[in-house]
Amino acid sequence: MQTQIKGIYNNGQVILDEQPTLSKPVKVVVTFLEEEEVVVKKKKPLIAGFAKGTVTYMSPDFNEPLDELKDYM
């Protein structure tokens, strides 16, 4: 069985966030997780009409009913 408990390593000591409930000695594996700086990119605000002119072609029958849906009309 594996149990995970978070903690902090500082000056040669591991300080656990909680006390494990174990009745006998067990082997442990310590993994050091260095915190990476999270870079948050600011998104540009969306502006109404920003995509105007990006559609270069539209079929002449774009608004016509689809043949596949004739049974439902």
Describe the structure.
The chain contains no helices and two strands. The chain is low in regular secondary structure. The protein has a two-stranded antiparallel ribbon.
Observed structural traits:
73 residues, single chain, little secondary structure, elongated, two-stranded antiparallel sheet
Short description:
The chain contains no helices and two strands.
Q: Topology of this protein?
A:
Layout: E1 7-10, E2 13-16
Antiparallel strand pairs: 1-2
The largest sheet is: 2 strands, antiparallel
The first-to-last residue Cα distance is 61 Å
Proportion in helices: under 10%
Mass-distribution shape: elongated
Spatial strand sequence of the major β-sheet: 1-2
- Average pLDDT, to the nearest integer? 86
Instruction: Work out the number of β strands.
Output: 2
What amount of the residues lies in strands? 5-15%
Listing every helix as H and every strand as E from the N terminus to the C terminus, the arrangement reads EE
Radius of gyration: 30 Å
Structural class: little secondary structure
Unreliable segments of 5+ consecutive residues:
none
Count of DSSP helices?
A: 0
